[in-house]
Write a structure and sequence with these properties.
The protein is of the alpha+beta class and 378 residues long. Helix content is 26%, strand content 33%. A six-stranded mixed sheet has the order 6-7-8-3-9-10, with helices on both faces. The longest helix has 18 residues, at 169-186. Bound molecules: adenosine-5'-triphosphate (ATP). Adenosine-5'-triphosphate (ATP) binds at residues 13-14, 18, 20, 38, 40-46, 195.
């Protein structure tokens, strides 16, 4: 078991024309499970491959268990990687696939290797597959073998590169739980790459969220959900996505007013108002999560038209004409018709506010009293 430290890691391709990973620093604690998540092309696989020793960083250092491994060959790093495409040797049996890594990385004799393979196969419930060839296995079985092959080596660190992407939705969900259970039981430090924010939110102790090669935010799933540090993180985490609207920021005697054209305005007072006033911006992006948009039954609130009602079983998603793709997530018994005019409201404490230019968060979502004031609708 070991800590993993990335120190100002950078990776350029095409003679520096493409910066895939830009100054990424991250500390993964011993036994921690960190998911690295971000959209396609954000540099997450390249980061993982540098930790594995499959890519050489352009600059920066990588330490595993305190040892600087930056210049160490992949084979000499005590890490085991699990790939999306399983990467099993096609002409070896499951047993030979699992034992191969042990042969390369330990000086165990064949009896000891076989014993370890048997133990791990029992743990993974794949004992009956040990004599099969990979092409006789289903996708789910192949992935169990690939996991077993990583586990049998008892590495310091597990590296997972989108290991569940090729599996169907149901299998993916059960394998998520199983990977977490195994990692927890073994206590092995794990870094798990995925583009799927939902997977990242349900799996890791901590998320490391990347975009454009840059590490945007690290934190627990709750941290990044409730206190995104930027418009990117706010919009990336959560499904359906956070609603975002342009607002003018106007100073007021007791703080600031956030004005969305002539549809609504919010007053931010006290410390939150002071913080936004200090940022001295004329415009901002207001973020509100779909579950924080409440339909009011009375005359209070913001008037809006219902464009689409999408039932998803437990809830209804109401697409509202407050903005492009503006969604209220409401209980399934709230059932307006398309074209209805309804009134909605949200608490001031649920509002996120981002700098229109930099995307940086201007507010943290701490406690406070709701102070919505609707203005006349157009
Ligand atoms: P995905 O989920 O699509 O794999 P990712 O976040 O893992 O995306 P990377 O695979 O790390 O992203 O790629 C980051 C950037 O680096 C991309 O623009 C990619 O095209 C580029 N890239 C990756 N490997 C190479 C390479 N060997 N040569 C040139 N460019 C590369």
């Amino acid at each position: 078991m070991a800590t993993v430290t990335l120190d100002a890691l950078r990776k350029e391709f095409d003679s520096g024309r493409l910066v895939a990973v830009d100054d990424v620093s991250l500390e993964v604690a011993d036994g921690e499970f960190v998911t690295v998540v971000g959209p396609s092309g954000c540099g997450k696989s390249t980061t993982l491959r540098m930790i594995a020793g499959l890519e050489q960083p352009t600059s920066g250092r990588i330490r595993i268990g305190g040892e600087d491994v930056t210049d160490l060959h992949a084979r000499r790093r005590d890490v085991a990687m699990v790939f999306q495409n399983y990467a099993l040797y096609p002409h070896k049996t499951v047993r030979q696939n699992m034992a191969f890594g042990l042969r390369m990385s330990t000086d165990l004799g064949s009896d000891a290797r076989n014993r370890k393979v048997d133990e791990t196969a029992a743990m993974m419930d794949i004992e009956e597959l040990l004599d099969d060839q990979p092409d006789e296995l289903s996708g789910g079985q192949k992935q169990r073998v690939a996991l077993g092959r990583a586990i049998v080596r008892e590495p310091d660190v597990f590296l997972f590169d989108e290991p569940l992407s090729n599996l169907d939705a149901k299998l993916r969900t059960s394998m998520r739980t199983e990977i977490q259970r195994l990692q927890d039981e073994l206590g092995t430090t794990a870094i798990y790459v995925t583009h799927d924010q939902e997977e990242a939110m349900t799996m890791g102790d901590r998320l490391a969220i990347m975009n454009d090669g840059v590490l945007r935010q690290t934190g627990t799933p709750t941290d990044v959900y409730t206190t995104p540090n930027s418009e990117f993180v706010g919009g990336f985490v959560g499904s359906p996505s956070m609603n975002l609207l342009d607002v003018a920021v106007e100073s007021a005697a007791d703080g600031v007013r956030l004005v969305n054209e002539d549809r609504f305005e919010y007053r931010l007072t006290g410390e939150r108002g002071e913080r936004v006033a200090a940022a001295d911006v004329a415009t901002a992006r207001l973020g509100i999560r779909p579950e924080n948009v409440r339909v009011t039954g009375d005359r209070e609130g913001i008037e809006t038209g219902v464009e689409v009602v999408e039932p998803v079983g437990s809830d209804n998603y109401l697409y509202l004409d407050l903005g492009p793709e503006f969604i209220a997530r409401v209980a399934s018994d709230v059932e307006p018709e398309t074209g209805d005019i309804i009134r909605v409201t949200f608490n001031e404490t649920d509002i996120h506010l981002f700098d229109a230019a930099s995307g940086d968060a201007l507010l943290a979502t701490d406690a406070g009293e709701p102070t919505v004031t609707a203005t006349a609708s157009p």
